[in-house]
C-alpha cells in the first residue's frame, strides 16, 4: 500500500471513531523516518486505546501491520509506526505538552478535509 493511501485510510478510520483534531504532516521532504505523521487526540484513555485498537484491527483486515507500537498501557500518547506513516494518538494534555505540530512546523500540513465528516 502506498504511503498516501495508508495515511488516508488511517485518517478515515480515526475520524470514524471520533478522533479529535486530526492533522496530517507531510514530513517526507524533511526526514527519511516516514512520509507522514498523522496526529490526533482522544477525550479519555479509553477512547485513545479504542482509536489504537480500531486502527490496528481495520488495517490488519487489509494486511497492513504496524512495525511498532508504544505507549498503549499508559494511553497518554500512543505511537503506531507503519513505516511510511507514523500515527500519534494523544491525550489533549500530552498533545499540548509535546506539541508535535510545532516541532515539525516546517512540514506541510496535508488538507484532509475531503476525508473528514463535518458534524456541524
TrEMBL record:
It is found in: Cytoplasm. GO terms for molecular function: ribosomal large subunit binding. Functions as a ribosomal silencing factor. Interacts with ribosomal protein uL14 (rplN), blocking formation of intersubunit bridge B8. Prevents association of the 30S and 50S ribosomal subunits and the formation of functional ribosomes, thus repressing translation. The keyword Cytoplasm applies. It comes from Qingrenia yutianensis. GO terms for cellular component: cytoplasm. It holds the Pfam family RsfS. This is Ribosomal silencing factor RsfS. Keywords: Cytoplasm, Repressor, Translation regulation. One of its GO terms (biological process) is negative regulation of translation. SUPFAM superfamilies: Nucleotidyltransferase. Belongs to the Iojap/RsfS family. Its main location: cytoplasm. Interacts with ribosomal protein uL14 (rplN).
